[in-house]
Amino acid sequence: MKVIKLSEALKSKEVADAIKSGKILVYPTDTIYGIGCNAEAAESVRRIHQAKGRPEDKPFGIIAPSKEWIFENTHISKENIAFVESLLPGPYMVILKAKRKMPFVTAKDGTIGIRIPKDPFCDLIRKQNMLFITTSVNLSEEDPVRTIEEIPPKITQVVDIAVDAGQSGIYGSRIFDLTKDFEIARF
Predict the structure, then answer these.
(1) Alpha-carbon distance 172 to 71, whole Å?
(2) How far apart, in whole angstroms, are the C-alpha atoms of residue 110 and residue 141?
(3) CB under 8 Å to 78, separation ≥6 — which residues?
(4) What average pLDDT is seen over the chain?
(5) Which residues are within 8 A (CB) of 142 and not within 5 positions of it... i.e. 6 or more apart?
(6) Which letter does DSSP use for residue 139 in this model?
(7) Please, how many CA atoms are within 13 Å of residue 36, restricted to the half-sphere of its CB?
(8) What single DSSP character describes residue 101?
(9) Single pTM value for the model
(10) For labelling, which of 76, 113, 151, 156 has a CA lying 20 to 30 Å from the CA of 165?
(11) Does residue 168 have a pLDDT over 90?
(12) What CATH number has the domain spanning 2-177?
């Protein structure tokens, strides 16, 4: 696992290429550290499932390239479009019905968990204009790590690059399920 400081990673062609090519990254978000890869990199996605000890039929959330992508690829009410517009980017995940099944990220019920973190490294991910797997850096059912040094060895074995931004927060993203009869979400 190669560790790169955030300030260097934001300028690195190597990191941008790693994002696009499907390498596994640990990266900062606006909440806690995430682990992920290009959602189309099937072998990398499987390696993340195995390292975390997570069942392969349990889908991952994604970092979407834009709010427009969300509106074009999910079933969302007009009221909830305005809600999502005000919510993202931010420390939230929205659950919506996907218009099409996408491997590794669409649940059996057709839902998908979507994030647009408010974070400079996640902005770099979004600029690659693709779906990017996002999940907490931890073994399944254990607390997420707050520093690069805390990453469990089972996970470090599969990580290509870890972006070090110092200590993270302690809480993951707040989740809003917007699938229930297209009800309007409210705080």
Answers:
(1) 24
(2) 24
(3) none
(4) 93
(5) 152
(6) S
(7) 31
(8) -
(9) 0.91
(10) 113
(11) yes
(12) 3.90.870.10
Tokens of 156: 């470090």
CB 33 within 8 A of CB 39: no
Contact status, residue 177 vs residue 155, Cβ threshold 8 Å: no
Residues 53-73 have pLDDT tens digits of 998 888 999 999 999 999 999
Task: Give the burial class of 145: count Cβ atoms within 10 A of its Cβ; 0-12 exposed, 13-18 middle, 19 or more buried.
Answer: buried
d(CA 76, CA 72): 9
Closest CA to 46 of 88, 85, 104: 104
pLDDT score, position 186: 46
Contact 92, 187 (CB under 8 A): no
Phi, psi of 63 (to 5 degrees): -95, 120
Lowest average pLDDT, out of 27-31, 49-53, 125-129, 183-187, goes to 183-187
